[in-house]
Design brief:
- The complex is a heterodimer of chains A (159) and B (174).
- With 159 residues, chain A is mainly alpha-helical.
- Chain A has a domain of 101 residues.
- Chain A has eight helices and no strands.
- In chain A, helix 2 packs antiparallel against helix 7, helix 4 runs parallel beside helix 6 and helix 6 runs antiparallel to helix 8.
- Chain A starts with a helix and ends with a helix.
- Chain B has two domains: 48 residues; 111 residues, no CATH class.
- Chain B is built from eight helices and no strands.
- The chains are: A mainly alpha (159), B mainly alpha (174).
- The interface between A and B is large, with 76 and 72 residues.
C-alpha cells in the first residue's frame, strides 16, 4: 500500500517536471472520472455494509461446512458471489475452515467467486460496461469458479 | 458531473441508509452500530486506494499514447496482449472496483476487448499480495492448482466474451 502511494507521488512529480499543463489536465481527468463514479461507489459501500450485517463471517463459516459436498459447493458459490471481503480477511478464514475439515473444493469455489463474481460491485460494473456485459461476465466467472473448485477437488483427492 | 436519474436514485438510497443508521443509533439499536461501522470501514478502505488509482489513470490518459497501447494490447498484439494484461493485473491494488476504471482506460486507448476481459479476470485472480496471502494460508499447492486452471480459462473466456459482446460496451462516459 505504501509502495502504491510512493508510486503515485513519484509519477505525479515526474509528470509535473515534464509538463505542468499536462499534469493539471491529468488531475482534472482523475477528478472527473472519480466524481462520475462516486454515487456507484457509495451505493457499493452501503450494499457491503448490509451484506456483511446479514452474512457475518461466523455465519459464512457455519454454512460452508454444514452440508455434503454438492450442497456445500452451491452454498459456497452463492456466499462467495454475494459477499465482498478483502483477501487479508478471506484467506485466514479459509485457512481456518480447511483446518476444521471443510473440503478444499468448497474453499476453492468460495474464494474464487469471492474475488471474481460481484453482486455488490454489480451497479459499479454496470455503470462502466453496461448491464449485458456485466451480467455475462459475472456468469462466466461463476462458471470458471466452479471448474476451478472441481479441479482443486480432483487434485486434492476429494472427488 | 452529470446527474442522471440512476445516479440520483443511488444517492437517494445512500442518504436513506445514512438516515436509517443514524436513527437506529439514536434508538440504541446494535444494528445501526454494526452496519455503520462496516460501511465506514469499507468506505475508508476503498477511499484509501481510489484517489491514487484515479490519479494514475489520469496520468495514463494524458501521457500514454494510443499507439503504444494499441501495439501492446490492441488487435495485433495476439496472446502477448493477454500476457501483459495478466502482468498488469498482478500489480493491481484493491479489488474489482479499481480494476473496472483501469480496464475502461485501457479500452479507450485501443486495447482489444479480449485483453480487457483478461485483465478483469486476472485482476480478480492473480493480484500478487493476495496470492501470497492465499498460499500462506491454504498452501502453495492450492494456489498453484487454482492459477493453472483459472488463468487459461480466463483467457479462453475473454476471447469468447469479446466475440459475443463486440458491440455491447457503452461509449466512453465523458
Amino acid at each position: 500500500m505504501t509502495f502504491f502511494y510512493i508510486l503515485t507521488v513519484l509519477a505525479l512529480v515526474l509528470s509535473l517536471a515534464f509538463d505542468r499543463n499536462k499534469s493539471w489536465q491529468a488531475l482534472q481527468v482523475a477528478l472527473k472520472r472519480f466524481l462520475q463514479i462516486l454515487p456507484d461507489l457509495l451505493l457499493m459501500t452501503v450494499l457491503v455494509a448490509v451484506v456483511l450485517y446479514l452474512l457475518p463471517q461466523s455465519t459464512i463459516a457455519f454454512y460452508l461446512g454444514k452440508y455434503n459436498l454438492l450442497f456445500s459447493s452451491i452454498v459456497a458459490a452463492i456466499l462467495g458471489s454475494v459477499t465482498l471481503m478483502p483477501g487479508f480477511i478471506a484467506y485466514p478464514l479459509c485457512g481456518l475452515l480447511a483446518k476444521q475439515g471443510v473440503p478444499y473444493l468448497v474453499l476453492g469455489i468460495f474464494s474464487t467467486t469471492l474475488m471474481m463474481v460481484g453482486v455488490v460491485t454489480f451497479p459499479l460494473e454496470q455503470r462502466y460496461f453496461g448491464t449485458k456485459v456485466a451480467l455475462i461476465r459475472n456468469l462466466v466467472s461463476l462458471l470458471i469458479a466452479l471448474i476451478v473448485g472441481l479441479g482443486i477437488g480432483i487434485f486434492f483427492g476429494e472427488i | 458531473m452529470k446527474l442522471t436519474k440512476g445516479k440520483v436514485f443511488e444517492i437517494g438510497i445512500v442518504v436513506l441508509f445514512g438516515l436509517a443508521i443514524g436513527l437506529l443509533k439514536l434508538k440504541g439499536s446494535p444494528v445501526g452500530s454494526i452496519m455503520g461501522h462496516s460501511a465506514l470501514e469499507f468506505g475508508v478502505n476503498i477511499f484509501k486506494v481510489l484517489p491514487c488509482a484515479f490519479v494514475l489513470i489520469g496520468l495514463f490518459e494524458v501521457w500514454v499514447k494510443a499507439e503504444t497501447v494499441e501495439k501492446h494490447f490492441g488487435v495485433k498484439s495476439g496472446l502477448r496482449g493477454n500476457f501483459w494484461a495478466i502482468v498488469l493485473a498482478s500489480t493491481t491494488v484493491g479489488g474489482l472496483y479499481v480494476a473496472f476504471p483501469v480496464a475502461m482506460a485501457l479500452l479507450h486507448k485501443g486495447a482489444r476487448l479480449s485483453v480487457v476481459f483478461t485483465y478483469l479476470g486476472a485482476a480478480a485472480l492473480v493480484r500478487i499480495p493476495m496470492t501470497i496471502f492465499e498460499a500462506s494460508f491454504l498452501g502453495i499447492k492450492f494456489t498453484l492448482v487454482r492459477l493453472l486452471i483459472s488463468l487459461p480459462l480466463v483467457i479462453l473466456s475473454a476471447e469468447l466474451l469479446s466475440k459475443v459482446l463486440k458491440n455491447q460496451i457503452l461509449p466512453p462516459n465523458g
